[in-house]
Structures are given as structure tokens and as C-alpha cells.
Design brief:
Structural class: alpha/beta
Strand order of the largest sheet: 13-12-11-10-14-19-23-24
CATH class of the largest domain: Alpha Beta
Largest sheet: 8 strands, mixed
Helix content: 25-40%
Strand content: 15-25%
Distance between the termini: 75 Å
CATH architecture of the largest domain: 3-Layer(aba) Sandwich
Length: 439
């Protein structure tokens, strides 16, 4: 069928010979992962030195190049965004974190950093040689257009949607080498049963969402609980424009709420960059490709596009906020928990949208390992922790005690608002700090 590309089909071991000592190799982002090429490159451990691998948000239980070389004699792994498995690597000193804002990633690859070899996971090709980028559009086109060597890894489990305008497809002719073989099922992300706190926070947020709202839902308990409540509500004609499409949107679709009918851009389509969730989610993408616009980071993470849609609602999680509204979304002291990813992109898009609202949702307090209650609303972001979102970008904050809007408030008014949704056990100390600091 693909006679003119036959010479490009090689074994993973043959393709791995394209990697040279000193190279930068890109593995991609999210649930799409180049399993065969990872194992083949690990097999060259004793032949190579100083190979740097970039990835991020990995939810698989193993990266072979890392596990085979814990002394980092041949391979060093770098992550744009710490995922479940990478968090475990971090505790062993086996991952280097690289901070970035996701919408800037394509320009990083265009103008500031080098990529030598790209391992691109793609779906089974159609009869014209076109493959889907599966569940990770990411910034792949920008990356492989700037790479010395491009290797497509065909994964028989990836959804085959190409995007209604070809936004999610690549062609076999664009690869230098093509590998194929048997893969494990796609990695899935599951949700814990919603806690009472999740439910309380979600109830506050749902009250703020109008008919026809365009939703960006983060991955986690509160966004999924919000989606379940919206599915059971009287709201209609909701839309999707999100970094990661998940089972939260599938729940809205099943309830007939996700029509995308009022979107000013991509009317009738759910727009996203990554997909992460259940096998049922991946099947949905594969079976109904004509209702999705999977776009690259430049397209989906553009605040300008988001701002051109009315009632753009971003719902995201945080770790800590201080009394000025500064947010830590990604660290516990010096320990990196995740990354900023696209949070600032969607907060800005919501801020600039007519009727738009960006929510940071978090539990008011948590218990430490010793069982002591600790406030997640603090006088100031402590040393060692990260200020992910500046106070000027945070619009709404929601805890189980309510929702406050910070934009337009003075420092003293912000402190008062934040204290009003803090855990009551910490009101006195927060109020004392606010009096001493803000008058």
C-alpha cells in the first residue's frame, strides 16, 4: 500500500541509531508515549553519552532510558511538567524540571532550544498515508519541523481522528524513519470519588456558570465534579475549549449539554490539545471524529482566541494562595509537584473574555503527615515554593467556604476576601497578618 515509503520502515533498533552522543531527543507530552523507541534507545546505553531526553506529564509506570541508567552515564531526562510517574523519579533524583508556560513552548523550539531527534507517536495510517497524532497534538508539528531526524512510531491503539481541517494529522512522507510493533493499551487516568469538600467547591462554582459557557476544565476532582453537576443542571449549549479533554467533557456530552452551539470559534466542535482519561474517552474520539477540533498549542492555548469567545470559563486547581492573591499551583516547598502548564494561558483568556471567569479552586486546608491541620490560604507564599500565578492574573478563588472575586480590589480588600473563604481555624492569624501588613 505504501510502496514509496517502504524504505522508511525500519525496526526500532535501526531507527535508534539516528541518536548520537550529545543529542537532544523529544518524547512528547501526556498520554502519547513512544514505547518502542524508548526501549530501543535504552538498548544503546553503553554506546552513548550525554543524551538529553525531553518529555512531560508522563502517566506510564516506566521510562526505560531512565530506569536502565540511574547513574545518568548515557541519558538525562528532562520534564516540562511533572506527571504521576515523574514525581516518583524526582524523589530518586532522576528528572530535571524545566519551567515554562505552555503557549510559549512552540517559540522555545523555534528560536531558543535545539531538538535533534523527535520520537512522534502516531496512529495507524489511512490509505493515503495520513496518520493521526492520537491523544497528544502537543507542539509536535513545530518540534519535528525543527528536528534533524523525525521518527514516527505507529501505535495501533491511538484514535485515528485527523481533525476536521487536518489539524491533527501528519503524513508518512514527513518522517525520516517509521517504526511499528505491538503496544500495551493506552494509559488511562481515573478519578477518585468526589470528597465532601470537592462537592462544596463545585457547588459554588456551578452557580457562576451561564448557559452557553465555553469551558476549560483542568484535570482533577473539582473540575470533574463541576462537570457532573452541570450534566444534571438546567444549563444548555455548553462548549469545550480546553488544554486537556477528559471524561468530564464526555459526561457533559452524554447528558446532551455539550453542543458547542454558541462558540464564536469552532462552532459545533470541542477544541482541545491533549486527551487524557478512560478508554471510553479514547473510543469516543475515535468513533465521533467530526465533533472535535484537536489543535496544536499555538491554536488552543492562544488567549487571543479565547478572549474572542463570550463567557469563557476556566476552572483550575491550586496548591496555595496568599492574601494578595498570589498562587502556588505546582510545588510543595522545594518539591516540584507538577508544572504551570497552560494555567496562565486559560486564566488570561478568561480574564479577557466578555463574561469570562477564571477560577482557582482549592481546599481551604489540608492535614500534614502528622495529622496537623494546615491552611492552604497563607499570609504569603513561603520561601522555596513557587509563585505560579501573579496576583494580577488571579480573578476568582473558590474554596468550600465560597467564591471571591479579586480583580479590582486593593491589597487590603484582597486580604479580607481571601480570609472570608479560608478555614475558620486560621482566621485569627490571617487577620492579624493582614492588619499588620495592609493596615
Amino acid at each position: 500500500m505504501f510502496g514509496e515509503y517502504k524504505s522508511k520502515f525500519v525496526t526500532p533498533e535501526q531507527a535508534a541509531q539516528a541518536v548520537k552522543s550529545g543529542d537532544w531527543v523529544d518524547y512528547g507530552f501526556g498520554g502519547g508515549f513512544p514505547d518502542l523507541m524508548d526501549k530501543a534507545l535504552a538498548g544503546r546505553r553503553d554506546e552513548l553519552t550525554d543524551v538529553k531526553i525531553r518529555g512531560g506529564l508522563v502517566i506510564r509506570p516506566r521510562i526505560e532510558v531512565v530506569e536502565c541508567d540511574p547513574e545518568k552515564k548515557a541519558f538525562t531526562y528532562y520534564s516540562w511538567h511533572i506527571g504521576d510517574y515523574e514525581r516518583k523519579l524526582q524523589s530518586r533524583g532522576l528528572v530535571q524540571f524545566m519551567p515554562m508556560i505552555l503557549r510559549f513552548l512552540p517559540d522555545l523550539y523555534r528560536y531558543h532550544i535545539r531538538v535533534d531527534v523527535a520520537f512522534v507517536p502516531v496512529s495507524t495510517p489511512d490509505d493515503k498515508g495520513y496518520c493521526s497524532l492520537g491523544i497528544s497534538n502537543y507542539a509536535w508539528r513545530t518540534i519535528f519541523e525543527n528536528a534533524r531526524t523525525v521518527i514516527f512510531e505507529i501505535n495501533e491503539h491511538l484514535p485515528k481522528l485527523h481533525g476536521v481541517d487536518g489539524s491533527h494529522r501528519v503524513h508518512l512522507s514527513e518522517a525520516d524513519y517509521i517504526v511499528e510493533g505491538e503496544h500495551e493499551p493506552l494509559p488511562v487516568r481515573t478519578y477518585k470519588e468526589a470528597s465532601e469538600t470537592d462537592i462544596a467547591i463545585a457547588r459554588h462554582v456551578v452557580k457562576e456558570i451561564p448557559d452557553g459557557a465555553v469551558l476549560s476544565l483542568g484535570v482533577g476532582g473539582v473540575p470533574f465534579t463541576v462537570a457532573k453537576m452541570l450534566a444534571e443542571s438546567d444549563l444548555k449549549d455548553l462548549g469545550c475549549w480546553t488544554g486537556t479533554i477528559s471524561d468530564a467533557f464526555l459526561a457533559l456530552h452524554k447528558a446532551g449539554k455539550l453542543t458547542n452551539a454558541r462558540k464564536e470559534i469552532d462552532k459545533g466542535l470541542s477544541s482541545w490539545n491533549l486527551a487524557m482519561g478512560s478508554q471510553e474517552l479514547y473510543d469516543w474520539l475515535d468513533e465521533q471524529p467530526n465533533i472535535f477540533h484537536p489543535g496544536d498549542v499555538d491554536y488552543i492555548h492562544s488567549p487571543e482566541r479565547m478572549s474572542s469567545m463570550k463567557n469563557f470559563i476556566g476552572i483550575m486547581g491550586g496548591v496555595q494562595l496568599d492574601l494578595m492573591g498570589q498562587e502556588n499551583a505546582e510545588s510543595a516547598g522545594k518539591r516540584q509537584l507538577s508544572g504551570i502548564g497552560g494555567q496562565l494561558d486559560f486564566l488570561e483568556g478568561a480574564y479577557r473574555s466578555e463574561g469570562g471567569k477564571g477560577f482557582i479552586c482549592l481546599n481551604s486546608a489540608r492535614k500534614d503527615k502528622e495529622g496537623n491541620l494546615k491552611s492552604n490560604i497563607v499570609p504569603f507564599i513561603p520561601g522555596g515554593s513557587v509563585v505560579s500565578g501573579p496576583r494580577t492574573m488571579i480573578q476568582y478563588v473558590a474554596t468550600e467556604y465560597g467564591v471571591v472575586k479579586l480583580s479590582g480590589l486593593s491589597l487590603r480588600e484582597r486580604a479580607q476576601a481571601m480570609i472570608s473563604i479560608a478555614h475558620p481555624a486560621f482566621h485569627a492569624e490571617l487577620e492579624q497578618y493582614a492588619r499588620e501588613t495592609f493596615g
